[in-house]
């Protein structure tokens, strides 16, 4: 992230404060304002930096599959579930999960 504006400099200082804290972070803003980039910067500067970073566009997940995609499922849980599927949340363990609600 580059920029000299006061807003960017404030954001970068906030990222440096937030990154070492082991707590959920809510990033808000209009579509296209850099929420995912901000989440990646927090991840890269955190103690979770060696873990996975998963960004999920929740608006793109079909309503009927969102639960299975996020939480996974066990073999036989429903018709067609012929093997265990690890969900996105479980696969992000030890790293960062960014849930983007933009549509």
Largest sheet: 2 strands, parallel
CATH class division = Alpha Beta
Shape: elongated
Q: What's the CATH architecture?
A: 3-Layer(aba) Sandwich
Order of helices and strands: HHEHEEHE
Q: What distance separates the N and C termini?
A: 23 Å
Spatial sequence of strands, sheet with the most strands: 1-4
DSSP strand count: 4
CATH topology: Rossmann fold
Query: What is the fourth-level CATH superfamily?
Result: P-loop containing nucleotide triphosphate hydrolases
Q: In percent, how much strand structure appears in the residues?
A: 5-15%
Structural class by SSE content: alpha+beta
Describe this structure in words.
This protein is an alpha+beta fold. It has one domain (6-100): P-loop containing nucleotide triphosphate hydrolases (Rossmann fold, 3-Layer(aba) Sandwich), CATH 3.40.50. The chain is built from four helices and four strands; from the N terminus they run ααβαββαβ. A two-stranded parallel ribbon has the order 1-4. The chain has a two-stranded antiparallel ribbon with strand order 2-3. The radius of gyration is 16 Å and the shape is elongated.
Characteristics:
alpha+beta; two-stranded antiparallel sheet; 32% helix; 4 helices; 103 residues; Rossmann fold
What would you say about this model in short?
By secondary structure, the protein is an alpha+beta fold. The chain is built from 4 helices and 4 strands; from the N terminus they run H-H-E-H-E-E-H-E.
